[in-house]
Amino acid sequence: xxxxxxxxxxxxxxxxxxxxxxxxxxxxxxxxxxxxxxxxxxxxxxxxxxxxxxxxxxxxxxxxxxxxxxxxxxxxxxxxxxxxxxxxxxxxxxxxxxxxxxxxxxxxxxxxxxxxxxxxxxxxxxxxxxxxxxxxxxxxxxxxxxxxxxxxxxxxxxxxxxxxxxxxxxxxxxxxxxxxxxxxxxxxxxxxxxxxxxxxxxxxxxxxxxxxxxxxxxxxxxxxxxxxxxxxxxxxxxxxxxxxxxxxxxxxxxxxxxxxxxxxxxxxxxxxxxxxxxxxxxxxxxxxxxxxxxxxxxxxxxxxxxxxxxxxxxxxxxxxxxxxxxxxxx
Length: 330
Prior knowledge:
This protein is an alpha/beta fold and 330 residues long. The protein is 59% helix and 8% strand.
Protein backbone atom coordinates (compact mmCIF):
# COMPACT_ATOMS: atom_id res chain seq x y z
CA UNK A 1 0.00 0.00 0.00
CA UNK A 2 1.63 3.21 -1.18
CA UNK A 3 -1.09 5.87 -0.94
CA UNK A 4 -4.05 6.94 1.15
CA UNK A 5 -6.14 6.60 -1.99
CA UNK A 6 -5.50 2.86 -1.82
CA UNK A 7 -6.39 2.78 1.87
CA UNK A 8 -9.65 4.62 1.14
CA UNK A 9 -10.84 1.74 -1.03
CA UNK A 10 -11.43 -0.47 2.02
CA UNK A 11 -10.96 1.83 5.04
CA UNK A 12 -12.45 5.21 4.12
CA UNK A 13 -13.01 6.36 7.71
CA UNK A 14 -9.48 5.47 8.83
CA UNK A 15 -7.99 7.13 5.74
CA UNK A 16 -9.95 10.32 6.41
CA UNK A 17 -8.91 10.49 10.07
CA UNK A 18 -5.22 10.03 9.28
CA UNK A 19 -5.26 12.48 6.40
CA UNK A 20 -6.99 15.13 8.53
CA UNK A 21 -4.32 14.67 11.20
CA UNK A 22 -1.63 15.26 8.61
CA UNK A 23 -3.46 18.19 7.04
CA UNK A 24 -3.94 20.01 10.34
CA UNK A 25 -0.62 18.82 11.80
CA UNK A 26 -2.42 17.50 14.85
CA UNK A 27 -0.50 14.31 15.42
CA UNK A 28 -1.18 12.30 18.55
CA UNK A 29 1.72 10.82 20.45
CA UNK A 30 0.11 7.36 20.37
CA UNK A 31 -2.27 5.43 18.13
CA UNK A 32 -3.76 1.96 18.51
CA UNK A 33 -4.61 0.30 15.19
CA UNK A 34 -6.96 -2.62 15.74
CA UNK A 35 -8.63 -4.98 13.30
CA UNK A 36 -8.85 -8.60 12.26
CA UNK A 37 -5.99 -8.63 9.74
CA UNK A 38 -2.59 -7.47 10.93
CA UNK A 39 -0.92 -7.03 7.50
CA UNK A 40 -3.48 -4.33 6.62
CA UNK A 41 -2.89 -2.57 9.95
CA UNK A 42 0.87 -2.67 9.47
CA UNK A 43 0.65 -1.32 5.92
CA UNK A 44 -1.53 1.55 7.14
CA UNK A 45 0.94 2.28 9.97
CA UNK A 46 3.86 2.32 7.55
CA UNK A 47 1.96 4.59 5.16
CA UNK A 48 1.17 7.03 7.97
CA UNK A 49 4.79 6.98 9.13
CA UNK A 50 6.02 7.51 5.59
CA UNK A 51 3.83 10.59 5.22
CA UNK A 52 5.08 11.97 8.53
CA UNK A 53 8.69 11.51 7.45
CA UNK A 54 8.17 12.74 3.88
CA UNK A 55 10.24 15.82 3.15
CA UNK A 56 7.62 17.40 0.90
CA UNK A 57 5.38 18.90 3.55
CA UNK A 58 3.02 20.60 1.10
CA UNK A 59 1.07 17.39 0.43
CA UNK A 60 -0.64 14.62 2.37
CA UNK A 61 0.35 11.66 0.24
CA UNK A 62 4.00 10.60 0.58
CA UNK A 63 5.91 11.82 -2.46
CA UNK A 64 7.68 8.43 -2.94
CA UNK A 65 10.77 10.18 -4.29
CA UNK A 66 12.43 12.10 -1.44
CA UNK A 67 15.25 10.57 0.57
CA UNK A 68 12.99 9.70 3.52
CA UNK A 69 10.38 7.98 1.34
CA UNK A 70 13.06 5.96 -0.41
CA UNK A 71 14.62 4.96 2.91
CA UNK A 72 11.25 3.87 4.28
CA UNK A 73 10.80 1.68 1.20
CA UNK A 74 14.23 0.13 1.65
CA UNK A 75 13.86 -0.30 5.42
CA UNK A 76 16.82 1.97 6.15
CA UNK A 77 15.15 4.93 7.85
CA UNK A 78 16.93 4.99 11.19
CA UNK A 79 14.25 7.00 13.04
CA UNK A 80 11.59 4.40 12.26
CA UNK A 81 11.48 1.44 14.66
CA UNK A 82 9.39 -1.70 14.41
CA UNK A 83 9.04 -4.21 17.25
CA UNK A 84 7.50 -7.66 16.95
CA UNK A 85 7.27 -10.65 19.30
CA UNK A 86 10.49 -12.48 20.08
CA UNK A 87 9.04 -15.95 20.06
CA UNK A 88 5.64 -16.00 21.75
CA UNK A 89 5.87 -12.63 23.49
CA UNK A 90 7.28 -9.12 23.34
CA UNK A 91 9.73 -9.03 26.21
CA UNK A 92 10.68 -6.31 28.66
CA UNK A 93 14.22 -6.21 27.24
CA UNK A 94 12.88 -5.39 23.78
CA UNK A 95 10.89 -2.44 25.09
CA UNK A 96 13.80 -1.24 27.20
CA UNK A 97 16.08 -1.30 24.16
CA UNK A 98 13.46 0.61 22.20
CA UNK A 99 13.15 3.19 24.96
CA UNK A 100 16.93 3.59 25.03
CA UNK A 101 17.05 4.14 21.27
CA UNK A 102 14.21 6.65 21.43
CA UNK A 103 15.87 8.53 24.28
CA UNK A 104 18.58 9.52 21.85
CA UNK A 105 17.98 12.52 19.66
CA UNK A 106 16.51 11.73 16.25
CA UNK A 107 19.39 10.95 13.92
CA UNK A 108 17.86 12.40 10.76
CA UNK A 109 15.23 14.86 11.92
CA UNK A 110 12.93 15.95 14.69
CA UNK A 111 10.60 12.96 14.57
CA UNK A 112 10.85 9.33 15.71
CA UNK A 113 8.14 6.74 15.06
CA UNK A 114 7.89 3.27 16.52
CA UNK A 115 5.42 0.53 15.62
CA UNK A 116 4.70 -2.40 17.96
CA UNK A 117 3.08 -5.30 16.12
CA UNK A 118 0.90 -7.82 17.99
CA UNK A 119 1.08 -5.41 20.91
CA UNK A 120 -1.25 -7.58 23.00
CA UNK A 121 1.63 -10.06 23.29
CA UNK A 122 3.69 -7.76 25.48
CA UNK A 123 4.52 -9.36 28.80
CA UNK A 124 3.21 -7.44 31.84
CA UNK A 125 6.74 -6.18 32.48
CA UNK A 126 7.10 -5.01 28.88
CA UNK A 127 3.71 -3.28 28.96
CA UNK A 128 4.59 -1.45 32.17
CA UNK A 129 7.90 -0.32 30.70
CA UNK A 130 6.09 1.04 27.65
CA UNK A 131 3.49 2.74 29.85
CA UNK A 132 6.16 4.85 31.50
CA UNK A 133 7.14 6.16 28.09
CA UNK A 134 3.49 6.73 27.13
CA UNK A 135 3.13 9.05 30.09
CA UNK A 136 6.07 11.25 29.02
CA UNK A 137 6.65 10.51 25.32
CA UNK A 138 8.80 13.51 24.46
CA UNK A 139 8.50 15.87 21.53
CA UNK A 140 8.32 14.39 18.04
CA UNK A 141 7.82 10.80 19.13
CA UNK A 142 4.85 8.83 17.79
CA UNK A 143 3.80 5.32 18.82
CA UNK A 144 1.58 3.03 16.77
CA UNK A 145 0.44 -0.15 18.49
CA UNK A 146 -1.02 -2.86 16.26
CA UNK A 147 -3.29 -5.51 17.71
CA UNK A 148 -6.29 -7.67 16.93
CA UNK A 149 -7.01 -8.01 20.65
CA UNK A 150 -7.02 -4.48 22.10
CA UNK A 151 -8.85 -5.70 25.21
CA UNK A 152 -5.62 -7.41 26.29
CA UNK A 153 -3.70 -4.14 26.42
CA UNK A 154 -3.33 -2.42 29.76
CA UNK A 155 -6.31 -0.08 30.31
CA UNK A 156 -3.86 2.72 31.03
CA UNK A 157 -2.20 2.18 27.64
CA UNK A 158 -5.56 2.07 25.84
CA UNK A 159 -6.60 5.32 27.50
CA UNK A 160 -3.48 7.13 26.29
CA UNK A 161 -3.70 6.15 22.62
CA UNK A 162 -6.18 7.09 19.89
CA UNK A 163 -8.00 3.87 19.02
CA UNK A 164 -8.66 3.38 15.30
CA UNK A 165 -10.79 0.32 14.52
CA UNK A 166 -10.39 -1.02 10.99
CA UNK A 167 -13.23 -2.70 9.14
CA UNK A 168 -12.86 -6.48 8.70
CA UNK A 169 -10.48 -7.41 5.91
CA UNK A 170 -11.80 -9.07 2.77
CA UNK A 171 -10.36 -12.53 3.43
CA UNK A 172 -11.89 -13.88 0.24
CA UNK A 173 -9.98 -11.34 -1.81
CA UNK A 174 -6.75 -12.03 0.11
CA UNK A 175 -7.21 -15.75 -0.47
CA UNK A 176 -7.76 -15.18 -4.19
CA UNK A 177 -4.53 -13.16 -4.43
CA UNK A 178 -2.62 -15.90 -2.60
CA UNK A 179 -4.15 -18.55 -4.86
CA UNK A 180 -3.00 -16.67 -7.96
CA UNK A 181 0.52 -16.34 -6.55
CA UNK A 182 0.96 -19.91 -5.33
CA UNK A 183 -1.40 -22.03 -7.42
CA UNK A 184 -2.91 -23.59 -4.28
CA UNK A 185 -6.62 -24.34 -4.01
CA UNK A 186 -9.00 -21.75 -2.60
CA UNK A 187 -9.64 -23.56 0.67
CA UNK A 188 -5.95 -23.77 1.51
CA UNK A 189 -5.27 -20.12 0.66
CA UNK A 190 -8.26 -18.96 2.71
CA UNK A 191 -6.92 -20.91 5.68
CA UNK A 192 -3.44 -19.43 5.28
CA UNK A 193 -4.91 -15.92 5.12
CA UNK A 194 -6.69 -16.54 8.41
CA UNK A 195 -3.98 -18.19 10.52
CA UNK A 196 -0.86 -16.26 9.50
CA UNK A 197 -0.59 -12.68 10.79
CA UNK A 198 1.61 -11.60 7.86
CA UNK A 199 0.69 -12.11 4.23
CA UNK A 200 4.29 -12.93 3.30
CA UNK A 201 4.28 -15.71 5.92
CA UNK A 202 1.04 -17.06 4.46
CA UNK A 203 2.53 -17.04 0.98
CA UNK A 204 5.67 -18.81 2.18
CA UNK A 205 3.61 -21.46 3.96
CA UNK A 206 1.58 -22.14 0.83
CA UNK A 207 4.64 -23.02 -1.24
CA UNK A 208 5.70 -25.63 1.31
CA UNK A 209 4.16 -29.05 1.91
CA UNK A 210 4.05 -28.61 5.69
CA UNK A 211 0.93 -26.44 5.59
CA UNK A 212 -0.81 -28.84 3.20
CA UNK A 213 -0.10 -31.69 5.62
CA UNK A 214 -1.23 -29.55 8.54
CA UNK A 215 -4.69 -29.19 6.98
CA UNK A 216 -4.82 -32.96 6.47
CA UNK A 217 -3.92 -33.57 10.12
CA UNK A 218 -6.61 -31.18 11.34
CA UNK A 219 -9.26 -32.84 9.21
CA UNK A 220 -8.15 -36.25 10.49
CA UNK A 221 -8.46 -34.93 14.04
CA UNK A 222 -11.99 -33.73 13.31
CA UNK A 223 -12.91 -37.13 11.88
CA UNK A 224 -11.61 -38.79 15.04
CA UNK A 225 -13.67 -36.43 17.18
CA UNK A 226 -16.78 -37.08 15.09
CA UNK A 227 -16.47 -40.86 14.87
CA UNK A 228 -13.96 -42.18 17.43
CA UNK A 229 -13.59 -39.62 20.26
CA UNK A 230 -12.14 -42.25 22.60
CA UNK A 231 -9.13 -42.54 20.26
CA UNK A 232 -8.21 -38.83 20.41
CA UNK A 233 -5.29 -39.28 22.86
CA UNK A 234 -3.78 -42.00 20.65
CA UNK A 235 -4.17 -39.83 17.55
CA UNK A 236 -2.38 -36.98 19.31
CA UNK A 237 0.55 -39.20 20.26
CA UNK A 238 0.91 -40.94 16.90
CA UNK A 239 0.12 -38.17 14.40
CA UNK A 240 -0.57 -34.72 15.82
CA UNK A 241 2.68 -34.29 17.74
CA UNK A 242 4.78 -35.48 14.79
CA UNK A 243 3.15 -32.83 12.56
CA UNK A 244 3.07 -29.93 15.04
CA UNK A 245 6.45 -30.25 16.69
CA UNK A 246 7.06 -26.84 18.23
CA UNK A 247 5.13 -23.96 19.74
CA UNK A 248 4.64 -22.07 16.49
CA UNK A 249 3.49 -25.19 14.66
CA UNK A 250 1.07 -25.97 17.49
CA UNK A 251 -0.39 -22.48 17.32
CA UNK A 252 -1.00 -22.83 13.59
CA UNK A 253 -2.61 -26.23 14.12
CA UNK A 254 -4.94 -24.89 16.80
CA UNK A 255 -5.84 -21.87 14.65
CA UNK A 256 -6.81 -24.29 11.87
CA UNK A 257 -8.99 -26.21 14.33
CA UNK A 258 -10.57 -22.90 15.37
CA UNK A 259 -11.47 -22.18 11.74
CA UNK A 260 -13.12 -25.59 11.47
CA UNK A 261 -15.30 -25.12 14.54
CA UNK A 262 -16.25 -21.63 13.40
CA UNK A 263 -17.44 -23.16 10.12
CA UNK A 264 -19.44 -25.78 12.04
CA UNK A 265 -21.10 -23.11 14.17
CA UNK A 266 -21.93 -20.92 11.15
CA UNK A 267 -23.59 -23.82 9.37
CA UNK A 268 -25.43 -24.80 12.54
CA UNK A 269 -26.91 -21.33 12.83
CA UNK A 270 -27.46 -20.86 9.10
CA UNK A 271 -27.47 -23.99 6.87
CA UNK A 272 -27.33 -21.80 3.76
CA UNK A 273 -24.13 -20.08 4.90
CA UNK A 274 -21.78 -19.91 1.92
CA UNK A 275 -18.67 -18.27 3.38
CA UNK A 276 -17.26 -21.43 4.94
CA UNK A 277 -13.51 -21.90 4.86
CA UNK A 278 -13.38 -25.70 4.79
CA UNK A 279 -15.54 -25.78 1.66
CA UNK A 280 -14.17 -29.16 0.54
CA UNK A 281 -15.20 -30.79 3.81
CA UNK A 282 -18.84 -29.78 4.00
CA UNK A 283 -20.13 -33.34 4.79
CA UNK A 284 -17.85 -33.52 7.84
CA UNK A 285 -18.88 -30.01 8.89
CA UNK A 286 -22.53 -30.97 8.63
CA UNK A 287 -21.91 -34.17 10.58
CA UNK A 288 -20.29 -32.19 13.39
CA UNK A 289 -23.15 -29.72 13.16
CA UNK A 290 -25.43 -32.48 14.32
CA UNK A 291 -24.22 -31.74 17.84
CA UNK A 292 -26.01 -29.16 19.95
CA UNK A 293 -25.10 -25.50 19.66
CA UNK A 294 -23.95 -25.63 23.27
CA UNK A 295 -21.50 -28.46 22.54
CA UNK A 296 -20.11 -26.75 19.43
CA UNK A 297 -19.66 -23.52 21.36
CA UNK A 298 -17.83 -25.37 24.16
CA UNK A 299 -15.53 -26.99 21.61
CA UNK A 300 -14.73 -23.61 20.11
CA UNK A 301 -14.11 -22.04 23.50
CA UNK A 302 -11.82 -24.93 24.46
CA UNK A 303 -9.68 -24.43 21.35
CA UNK A 304 -9.48 -20.66 21.87
CA UNK A 305 -8.37 -21.29 25.46
CA UNK A 306 -5.70 -23.68 24.16
CA UNK A 307 -4.40 -21.01 21.77
CA UNK A 308 -4.09 -18.59 24.70
CA UNK A 309 -2.15 -21.20 26.69
CA UNK A 310 0.25 -21.68 23.79
CA UNK A 311 0.77 -17.91 23.60
CA UNK A 312 1.42 -17.91 27.35
CA UNK A 313 4.28 -20.40 26.85
CA UNK A 314 2.48 -23.42 28.29
CA UNK A 315 3.97 -26.69 27.01
CA UNK A 316 2.37 -27.42 23.58
CA UNK A 317 1.98 -31.17 24.16
CA UNK A 318 0.34 -30.68 27.55
CA UNK A 319 -1.90 -28.00 26.03
CA UNK A 320 -3.10 -30.30 23.25
CA UNK A 321 -3.60 -33.24 25.62
CA UNK A 322 -5.77 -31.07 27.85
CA UNK A 323 -7.69 -29.88 24.79
CA UNK A 324 -8.41 -33.47 23.74
CA UNK A 325 -9.85 -34.13 27.19
CA UNK A 326 -12.06 -31.03 26.89
CA UNK A 327 -13.24 -32.07 23.41
CA UNK A 328 -14.06 -35.57 24.59
CA UNK A 329 -16.29 -34.15 27.31
CA UNK A 330 -18.27 -32.28 24.64
